[in-house]
Amino acid sequence: MMAFRSLHRIRALHRTAQISESSHLLGSSRSYASGISTVPELYCRNKGHGALPWTHGSSITLRSAMAVELPIFWNDTRLLSTQVKAPAQARQMGALKVAMLSPGFIYEPYTPREKISFLKRWFTRSGWRRTKEDTVLELKSAYAITKLRKKGYSKNLFYKEAIQLYKEINTLMANGDKNSLRKAVTEKMFSELKNEIKQRESIWNKVYWEMVEPVVKIRTLRARLIGVDRNDLEKVFIQLTLEFLTKQKFEAYDSNGSIVSGDKSKEVLVRDIWVFEKSLFHDKAFWRLCGRISL
């Protein structure tokens, strides 16, 4: 009997996925309906799969000491909230302004959910809680995508742009072109990649990198919104987490031109998870890489 009542609750929860402007989408999430999401620090450590092949096993950490609350409200109901330290130029102005270029961190970094059996999911209390949590996560992504579509978003066009950005950033990294790289990534990410280039150049004199097209697979894993003005829902940043599965060729050389790593005659299957970010309140905003996730 408890199982049937739970199934009824789950159906009701799924019906809320029909997103509308007047609905309180995330009100069912206990952590968001009751108050501010307390997140003192966010980390994204990049090793192994997430690291570019020329970083020599290096790691990158995205860290934010959070100081200013950035909530998103809807009809006086908090949908999601986080906190971020304002950039220096905004602090000089005395408050966080909409001229902010990037929040500087990944909000709710993607992590894969542990699989559970059908029986456990539908006939145990822990399974019902897990189903509710999974549904809320999907609703948050659906809400972000819905808001993005109002700005003219097309998944197919975005995927083409994301693949081009993925190829461009990897090529710029291989060539050590920091000036061009700055335009394709956020300020925080540029600082990290610049250090990676410096480290790579201290080990290898030159590298060859190539992506074999077409890509094997690309898919969206998560979408999140970050608000900058509680009184204006249009002033938000969006972050899309994408998974790339591609075949790549890589080769590294020393100062004498001798091969010291890799083999460009061989294709290697590489899985990367990158997070792209865009402001939805700047007319000329464009997608930039804001982080990479390693699982």
Write a structural description:
The protein is an alpha+beta fold. It has a single domain, classed as Nuclear Transport Factor 2, Chain: A (Roll), CATH 3.10.450.240. It is built from eight helices and nine strands. The strands form three sheets. Strands 5, 6, 7, 8 and 9 form a five-stranded antiparallel sheet that branches. Strands 1-2 form a two-stranded antiparallel ribbon. Helix 1 (2-15) packs parallel to helix 5 and helix 6 (155-175) runs antiparallel to helix 7. Residues 13-49, 55-86 and 89-98 have low confidence and may be disordered.
Set out the fold topology.
Elements: H1 2-15, H2 30-33, E1 43-46, E2 60-63, E3 68-74, E4 77-84, H3 88-92, H4 118-123, H5 125-149, H6 155-175, H7 178-184, H8 187-203, E5 206-227, E6 236-253, E7 259-262, E8 268-279, E9 288-293
Antiparallel strand pairs: 1-2, 3-4, 5-6, 6-7, 6-8, 8-9
Helix pairs in contact: 1-5, 6-7
Keywords: Mitochondrion, Ribonucleoprotein, Ribosomal protein, Transit peptide
Domain Tim44-like: 139-294
InterPro entries: mtLSU_mL45, NTF2-like_dom_sf, Tim44-like_dom
